[in-house]
Amino acid sequence: MTKIQTQPPRGTRDFYPEELRVRSWLFDHWRTVARSFGFEEVDAPIVEHAELYQRKAGEEIVDQLYHFELHDRHLALRSEFTPSLARMVMARQGGLRWPIRWFSIPQCWRYERMTRGRRREHYQWNMDVWGEAGVGAEAELIAAIFAALDALGLAPADVRMRINSRALLEETLRDRFLADRPDAFAPLCVIIDKLDKIGADAVVDQLADPAGPVGLPRPEAKDAVALLSVSGLEEAERNAPAGSAALAGLRELFDRLDDYGLADRVAFDASVVRGLAYYTGVVFEAFDAEGSLRAICGGGRYDRLLETLGGKPVPAVGFGFGDAVITELLADKGLLPELPRDLDAVVFPFGADERRAGTLLARALRAQGRSVELVLGEVKLKRALADADRSGARQIFLIGPDEQARGVARCRDLTTGEERDEPLP
Fold first, then answer.
1. How far separated are the first and last CA of the chain, in Å rounded?
2. Mean of the pLDDT values across residues 352-362?
3. CATH architecture of structural domain 17-332
C-alpha cells in the first residue's frame, strides 16, 4: 500500500486552526476597508475556461497555468481573478449600473518558481472599478491599499508605492520608433517587466532578438530600456511627445493622491510596467521600504480587456494584493497577531447520568448566540479544567451529581476564578 504524504503539494499550504485565525484576521481587514470605500463583494468558480487566460503576449502567467482537459473541455485553475471578473461583467453588461465597485478575495494558482512570498497557490484581495475613465478611480484604489496597510499596523514609512503609465510609455515609444509597430508594444512591456529579474543587458537582448515578438534594432532597444530609468515627471515630460494626455493624467492622479494625504508615500517610477499584457494606462506597485520582498500588491488600468473577450469596451482599473508577501512583512515587523480561540464556554457533565443535563444546557447557551463546547466522553475534572483554560474559554459550566440534584450548574469564570450557580434549563 502506498504511504500517504502528510505534507501538502509543494507550494501550497494547510491552514490549521491557529493559522486560519490569522488568515481570517487579514481577510477581515481587507473586507472592512473595501466596504468602507463602498465596494461590494463578488466571487467566481476556482475552475475557469482555459481560453480566458491563453493570451498571446508571451506572459509568464500563461505558461504557469494549472490546466487540464475533461469531457472535451479545456479548463484551468484560475491564475488571477480579473479575467473571471471581465467574464462576469460581460454576462450582465447591458443591465449594470455604472460605475461598479466590486472586490473579491479569490484563491489563485500558478505553477511558478517559489521564492520568499511567492507560492503556487495564494489568496488575493482584488478591488476593481468598472465604468469610470477618470483617474479618480485609481486614486480611490490606491487610497484603499494604504488604508489597509495602516489598519494592519504598518507605519507610513514601511511601504512605498511606485506609479507609472503604460499609456505614457506607449506614447513616447510610438513617437520615437514604434509608430509603424502597433502590435509590438504589449510584448515589449512583458519583456521590460523582467528588468529586475534578468538585468538591462538581457532585456535589450530580448527586445533586439530578430526572431522575438518585438525585434527592435539594438540601439532602439537600448533607448527603450534607458527610458525606464526616468525618475520624475519633469524628466518624463522631456521625453514625452508634446501635449501628452497620459502625462496630464499622471499629474492629475498625483494631485488627487495629495488630497488623500498620500503625497509622501507615492512616487513616479518609469520602470513599473507590470507583466500582464492587458494593462493600458496607469500602473502601480507597492513595495516594502527596505526592498527585501517582492511587490506587496500591484494593479492598473485595463480599458480594453473586455474588447479582447468579445464584449463592448468599458474602462476598468483594479489591483491584486496577495496574502503571502504581506504576511511575510507583518511577521518581519512583529505585527502578526497571536489570536486565541474564540470560545465563550465549556459545559462539563461529570458522567453519563449528567449527560442529558449538559446537552440541554449547551443547547440553551448556543441559542443565546454563544460559542459553546460540550465535553464528550469520560474525562476527569482536572483534565476538563485544563483543556477549557488552554482553549481560551471564558467560562466552564460544571454539572455533577450534586448540581444536577439541585437543578443548577456550577459556573466558573476562568479569568477571575469566581464561581456561581446557574439554573439548568
1. 52
2. 97
3. 2-Layer Sandwich (3.30)
